[in-house]
């Protein structure tokens, strides 16, 4: 039975050993299998929801398998849990309501719920008349939201008046623009004692993009004094760097005993942050520090445990007014000088007044194929997705997995990449080469196999070599694009940073990285931390990035397509700014859209009264 679970990759050997350690059983029924299920699910789930277990097939084994694994019906679950020495408040396994936790994740989740609730209740003292005037100054000239609430204005009012806030929204809804205006408003409110603000993101690539976006958004802040503009920070850093990594440890220099020196911490791409890291961040906040989480609730969650942004934004629904309290709805009417933000529905969610949902896309209008496609995928509307793909939008291309598609895909990718390689051969500077490279990116759902990014990289590389655009006769070659996969704080290179190998002024081949400030940093390839070639990258790795033209290849169901999900497809589509190219069969696309990620968690429940 255990061999079947291992062979079908339902459990790992470490899960088996943990179950043995905690129960003292070599193999058994009842709690042994429950704990095995908890450990196996705990790769990304925070807990095991006992009420949702399919007792006939708890490990979701293919029904056609010769060996099915079922629970015995001869035990009472609550009685089994009550009598086990490893279950309890001070034990390695805990039961909270109908959820089973490993102690570490129970601690993380309870800590987050307690700290978020505490922060949400702490008052913020501001000049309300000044805030109302500043909101009018920065938003009342907006014309593109006429007839609908200005959700950016609502988000700024929310974040300015709460110690903890969450700002979520899809692609093109102006999250960074909103935050930049918010920073101008806050620094204007506290002009006599400016706030020390830290901008952070989970990866170096996301931090660089945040820096670039804020620098761009500052240029649109008309009628803002030079003093206030100078107080708006531009340089973001990784969350690990802010907390201060400790070598060979999962602890950080900054914690409850040594808090971060900041008045405000803004975390971009918060959906990528796992529950452990987020818990350590809130522990490291000083008593006076504010926290703002920024991100897309519908994007892929962390590759590790947790689903924090989706949990915090559980009540957000596109086209539906927020369930604000009457008190906060009245305050919003006062600050924003209008009253159309409140659904009037009762809710017991403690953070209902702390979450702002940006619902208007400034990038994609109603005719945009990319915008309509992302919306349809997000809503699980399979027929609408197919209709959009059939309509031949200028910004959407669809290529079915028909005979010859693979070579066509490689040739198209090679054709796109030839532009930046020609720039490199002509001796253009690194900034121009990087800009040309970022015009196109091929995304894959898998790492391995014929549809995985490893083979896609090899095929594209070989095709470019045949065209004479690169020389793959050596390990490192001019024009080779790479992505850092391991943080190196000494070199200031971080997971997700993209470099291109180019010749410097002395003719030496170096990996050149362009910072958000346009600064070019060059390194000999041998000095670099771990990296991958990046003609193709996984959709997971693409988070925090945008490309003018994005191509996304999805494997058929028999070749890894069963691992796809709705959030993965949505994330891939929303990396595209001007054009999305989808390579897939309709069965795979239908299947993926039908599979929303549902990670077991109790965070929302802990933040809900009653």
Rg computed from alpha carbons, rounded to a whole number of angstroms:
25 Å
Number of helices: 23
Question: How many DSSP E strands?
Answer: 19
> What kind of sheet is the major sheet?
6 strands, parallel
Helical residues, percent: 25-40%
The poorly predicted ranges are none
Q: Residue-averaged pLDDT, rounded?
A: 88
The spatial strand order of the largest sheet comes to: 6-5-7-8-4-9
Terminal Cα span: 42 Å
Helix-and-strand structural type: alpha/beta
Strand % is 5-15%
Described by the principal axes of the CA atoms, the overall outline is globular
List keywords for this structure.
610 residues, alpha/beta, six-stranded parallel β-sheet, five-stranded parallel β-sheet, 23 helices, 19 strands, globular
Fold and architecture overview:
The protein has 610 residues and is of the alpha/beta class. The chain has 23 helices and 19 strands. The strands form four sheets. Strands 6-5-7-8-4-9 form a six-stranded parallel beta sheet. Helix 8 crosses helix 9 and helix 15 runs antiparallel to helix 21.
Layout of strands and helices, then pairs:
Layout: H1 2-7, H2 13-23, H3 31-41, E1 48-49, H4 77-82, E2 93-96, E3 99-102, H5 103-121, H6 128-139, H7 151-161, E4 164-169, H8 175-189, E5 197-201, H9 204-218, H10 226-230, E6 237-238, H11 239-243, E7 264-267, H12 275-283, E8 290-295, H13 308-312, H14 326-336, E9 355-358, H15 369-379, H16 382-390, E10 396-399, H17 405-425, H18 430-437, E11 440-444, H19 453-466, E12 481-484, E13 498-503, E14 509-514, E15 520-523, E16 531-533, E17 536-538, H20 539-542, E18 547-553, H21 566-573, E19 576-583, H22 586-593, H23 603-606
Parallel strand pairs: 4-8, 4-9, 5-6, 5-7, 7-8, 10-19, 11-17, 11-18, 18-19
Antiparallel strand pairs: 1-3, 2-3, 12-13, 12-16, 13-14, 14-15
């Amino acid at each position: 039975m255990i061999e079947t679970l291992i062979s079908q990759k339902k459990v790992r050997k470490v899960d088996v050993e943990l179950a043995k350690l905690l129960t003292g059983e070599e193999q058994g029924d009842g709690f042994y299998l429950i704990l095995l299920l908890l450990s196996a699910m705990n790769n990304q789930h925070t807990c095991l929801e006992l009420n949702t277990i399919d007792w006939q097939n708890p490990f979701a084994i293919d029904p056609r398998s010769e060996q099915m694994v079922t629970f015995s019906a001869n035990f009472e679950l609550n009685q089994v849990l009550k009598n086990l020495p490893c279950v309890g408040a001070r034990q390695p396994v805990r039961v909270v309501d109908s959820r089973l936790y490993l102690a570490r994740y129970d601690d993380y989740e309870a800590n987050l719920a307690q700290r978020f609730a505490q922060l949400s209740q702490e008052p913020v003292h501001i000049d309300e008349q000044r805030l109302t005037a500043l909101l009018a100054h920065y938003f009342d000239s907006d014309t593109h939201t006429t007839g609908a609430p200005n959700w950016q204005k609502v988000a700024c009012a929310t974040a300015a008046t709460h110690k903890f806030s969450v700002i979520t929204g899809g692609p093109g809804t102006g999250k960074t623009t909103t935050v930049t205006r918010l920073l101008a408003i806050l620094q204007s409110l506290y002009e006599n004692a400016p706030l020390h603000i830290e901008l952070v993101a989970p990866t170096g690539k996301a931090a660089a993009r945040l820096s670039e976006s804020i620098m761009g958004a500052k240029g649109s802040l008309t009628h803002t004094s030079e003093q206030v503009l100078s107080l708006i920070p531009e340089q973001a850093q990784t969350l690990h760097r802010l907390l201060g990594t400790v070598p060979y440890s999962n602890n950080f220099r900054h914690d409850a005993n040594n808090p971060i020196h900041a008045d405000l911490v803004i975390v971009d791409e918060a959906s990528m942050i796992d529950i452990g890291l987020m818990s350590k961040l809130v522990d490291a906040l000083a008593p006076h520090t504010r926290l703002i989480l920024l991100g897309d609730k519908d994007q892929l969650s962390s590759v590790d445990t947790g689903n924090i942004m989706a949990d915090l934004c559980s009540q957000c629904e596109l086209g539906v007014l927020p369930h604000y309290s009457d008190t906060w709805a009245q305050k919003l009417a006062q600050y924003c000088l209008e009253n159309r933000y409140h659904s009037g529905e009762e809710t017991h969610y403690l953070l209902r007044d702390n979450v702002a949902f940006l619902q208007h896309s400034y990038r994609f209008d109603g005719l945009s194929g990319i915008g309509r496609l992302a919306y349809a995928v997000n809503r699980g509307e399979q027929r609408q997705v197919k209709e959009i793909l059939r309509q031949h939008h200028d910004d959407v291309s669809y290529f079915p997995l028909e005979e010859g598609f693979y070579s066509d895909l490689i040739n198209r990718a090679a054709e796109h990449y030839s532009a930046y390689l020609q720039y490199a051969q002509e001796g253009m500077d690194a900034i121009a080469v990087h800009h040309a490279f970022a015009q196109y990116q091929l995304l894959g759902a898998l790492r391995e196999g014929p549809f995985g990014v490893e083979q896609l990289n090899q095929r594209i590389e070989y095709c470019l070599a045949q065209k004479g655009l690169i020389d793959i006769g050596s390990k490192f070659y001019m024009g080779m694009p790479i992505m850092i996969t391991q943080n190196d704080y000494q070199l200031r290179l971080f997971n997700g940073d993209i470099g291109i190998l180019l010749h410097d002024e002395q003719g030496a081949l170096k990996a050149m990285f362009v910072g958000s400030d346009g600064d070019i940093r060059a390194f000999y390839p041998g000095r670099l931390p771990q990296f991958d070639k990046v003609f193709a990258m996984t959709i997971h790795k693409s988070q925090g990035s945008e490309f003018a033209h994005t191509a996304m290849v999805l494997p058929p169901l028999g070749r890894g397509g069963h691992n796809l999900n709705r959030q993965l497809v949505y994330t891939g589509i929303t990396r595209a700014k001007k054009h999305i190219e989808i390579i897939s069969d309709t069965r795979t696309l239908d299947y993926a859209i039908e599979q929303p990620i549902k990670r077991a968690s109790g965070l929302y429940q802990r933040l809900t009264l009653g």
